[in-house]
Amino acid sequence: MKRLLVRETRNLNGRIAVNGAKNAALPIIAASLLGEGESKLKGIPNLRDVNNLVKLLSDLGAKVDFSGNEIEVNADLVNKYSTHNELARKLRASYYTLGALLGRYGQAQCALPGGCEIGNRPIDLHLKGFTALGAEVELNHGIVKLEADKLIGAKIYLDYPSVGATMNIMLAAVKAEGETVIENVAREPEIIDLANYLNIMGAKVKGAGTDVIKIEGVEELIGADYTIIPDRIEAGTYMMAAAAIGGELVIENVLVEHVRALIAKLKEMGVEVIEDVNQVKVTAPNKLAGVDVKTMPYPGFPTDMQSQFMTLLTQAEGENVVIETVFENRFGHVDELRRMGAKIKVDGRSAVVAKANLEGAQVEATDLRAGAALIIAGLLAKGETEIYNVHHIERGYQNITRKLRDIGANIELIT
């Protein structure tokens, strides 16, 4: 069984580069199903989720070549519109094939998706959007089936600014007849990235990054070359690691605007953060001041950084409050941190974190970001920490073991 061996590390120094954003790559790869001819996508991270999505597209009949950090997709040979159920259940992003296949072919079928168990994440808002566009929706025994003779633009209001629903409705609407207006949409940078790619293919999408997106349907989209944005969550993970462990670390390939909420919190704690064009330099202080944090949809503090930030708070002065508003089950890492000596009290969606000396232990990554939090904790802890369920971590961080070793971390992957 794979596991990570992590030992106490005094400082992280040097430079570390961020890969392309997983949460942008997955919907953009699915969006390539909409384009006639070939799309060449660059900056794609080589991750478990990406490889599973590549297998899904290949199973549909698309020609897909994934080499290095580039993917070439030609969807002209797609010959079926039902995804492989076992593959679909392995990753949350499989549901993006619903919007893309519905948009191009007027039909789609996919098993309800898997991914990390971090809370209730139904796709009812996705289905509401597809229905508004004119699709017939059938949900039986965990299988979603969509059919539409013709998609017609509509006005759609999302009850919650869901990232997945926003993107999926965009994929279906770009070839719908007339105008689609989606209100109360998510504003994450990955949505802007998807809109930019669709527009390069010939779509007419306006308003991405605001709370209203307007889409004028077009008859044809053409495959295109595109480079995705850097991964803001990966960048934030390394920034928090440097702040917690100490040293001076330069994180390269960062769009600073995308990590503005984290930078603000780090500066509150006394961390020095120097911003450059496409990188940030993080220098840890001798003592970390305490802060409270509340997760919110973008541009607020990201839920995907909450578990790593909680580990950072175990080294901060006083008692600090973490409030999770996005997912109701995103404190799975708390029990694992407690095994290592963390002082954390949980009440519903709130946690109070006090300063503690961590000690090595055997722990399990309960989800992707919890795994990253445990790596930081292991680098802080005296002795040796063994982290199991490494597959969760591999879903979101390419070559994290090698990258961390290169900046001084005492970490080893045991296979």
TrEMBL record:
It comes from the Bacteria. It holds the Pfam family EPSP_synthase. Its main location: cytoplasm. Its EC number is 2.5.1.7. Gene3D superfamilies: Enolpyruvate transferase domain. InterPro entries: Enolpyruvate_Tfrase_dom, Enolpyruvate_Tfrase_sf, MurA_subfamily, RNA3'P_cycl/enolpyr_Trfase_a/b, UDP_GlcNAc_COvinyl_MurA. One of its GO terms (cellular component) is cytoplasm. UDP-N-acetyl-alpha-D-glucosamine binds at R92, R121, P122, I123, D124, L125, D304, V326. Keywords: Cell cycle, Cell division, Cell shape, Cell wall biogenesis/degradation, Cytoplasm, Peptidoglycan synthesis, Pyruvate, Transferase. GO terms for biological process: cell division; cell wall organization; peptidoglycan biosynthetic process; regulation of cell shape; UDP-N-acetylgalactosamine biosynthetic process. This is UDP-N-acetylglucosamine 1-carboxyvinyltransferase. It comes from Selenihalanaerobacter shriftii. The gene is murA.
